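As noted in the main text, all predictions were made from sequence alone. Below is one such record, for 14-3-3 protein.
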Amino acid sequence: GNSIAYKNVIGARRASWRIISSIEQKEESRGNDAHVATIREYRSKIENELSSICDGILKLLDSKLIGAASNGDSKVFYLKMKGDYYRYLAEFKIAAERKEAAENTLNAYKAAQDIANAELAPTHPIRLGLALNFSVFYYEILSSPDRACNLAKQAFDEAIAELDTLGEESYKDSTLIKSLV
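Prediction:
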């Protein structure tokens, strides 16, 4: 339940940040310098709040949650979460800080992906959620639409392939049962 509460706290601020940034651009293009200064102040207040929330969660993930994760499910879940919170930082940080947040996102998602591919079924909701967020990262943060699409498509194709084999197996089972009856 806790991760959902954090998601909402973060989600509201990320939404505010996006709205404020677009207002800031409009006011800037209109040359309303006084407005822009006020808006910037508010934007940096939101950025500070986002930074401290993300940093707090990332510390918790690194110091406790990831190390304590006992199975593939929870390891992937927490590493994905680590990637998510670094991605949220990468959304508004600039220059070297943005580069660092992006690298940390990539490393966390890659670590999660390695475990997911080895231990979770292609149709597992956490594995699919990871693929989705990883492709959002490629698209929004790294500006690589091709990689984003490939990653999402691969996850989709693997899931479909698994559903097909599951379908065939349950079909085989049912024909076996009929022949026994």
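The chain has two domains: 1-68, 71-181. The mean pLDDT is 91. These features were considered when defining construct boundaries for the mutagenesis experiments described in Section 2.9.
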